[in-house]
Every structure is written in structure tokens, then in C-alpha cells.
Amino acid sequence: MQTNSPQTHSADSSARSDVLKDNQFRVDAVHPGSALLVGDTAVFALAGHFCATQAKCSHKQGPLNEGKLDGSTVTCPWHGSQFNVCTGTVLQGPAVDPLKTYRVTVDGEMGCVEPA
Ligand code: FES
Q: 19-49: buried (b, 16+ CB within 10 Å) or exposed (e) per residue?
């Protein structure tokens, strides 16, 4: 007697290698000129490489991953502060404090955000 019921896999399996950690992302999930929220960081895809900063603006915590990226400059969607996403430098206020930056490493299809 055959059954067509699918094999069930344990959802509790500890072998979940396909699950991303908080600081990991799939490289193809970030298109050039855009950003992705990865944990508490915003990963920005520039021409040929990635830069990452804290995800929240240093002014009033605006979501920088939703900001407009122009080259290496992101504009906060809330009040228009601009930052260099590779150095964290403030290019235009009202923000005063620079952003914390992170190192991004890429291994094949996977990217990883690490403390700078
Ligand atoms: S929260 Fe980003 S400029 Fe105000």
C-alpha cells in the first residue's frame, strides 16, 4: 500500500544551514543603488561593493535603509540628512553625529556584516 503523503521534516531540526543569521544576507537580495536592512544595520550596494552603517539615522532614528542612495551618499527619508555610507560622515544636517560603520564581507552568494 502506497501513500502520497509528503515526507515531513522536523521543524525542530538543529541543522538549519539555510537559515540566515542576523548579520548575514544574500548578495542577490541587494540590488546596486539600493539598501537592505540586516539586523540593526543597513547594507548599501554600491558599484561593485557593499558598505554598511547603523540602520537608524543619528538625528532622530529615521530608517536609513529606506533612504535614497546616490553613489555613496544616502539621504535620510525623514529630515533629509545626508551621510557617506562608507565612512559614516555627515554630509548635510540636521544630523550632527556620524554613523557607525561596519565591515561587509562576501563569500560567494552570502554577505556578512561585522564590526568595523
Ligand atoms: S531622522 Fe534622519 S534626518 Fe532626521
A: eeeebebebeebeeeebbebbebbbbbeeee
What pTM, to 2 d.p., does this model score? 0.82
Q: Is 63 in the pocket of ligand 1 (CB under 6 A)?
A: no
The number of distinct structural domains making up the chain is: 1
Closest CA to 30 of 114, 110, 93: 110
Assign residue 103 the CATH number of its domain: 2.102.10.10
Nearest to 85 by CA among 57, 115, 114: 57
Tell me, yes or no, whether 94 lies in a domain: yes
Q: Does residue 62 have its Cβ closer than 6 Å to ligand 1? A: yes
Sign (positive or negative) of CA dihedral 81, 85, 87, 88: positive
pLDDT tens column, 68-87:
999 999 999 999 999 999 99
Cβ(26) – ligand 1 distance below 6 Å: no
Report the C-alpha gap between 52 and 25 in whole angstroms: 12
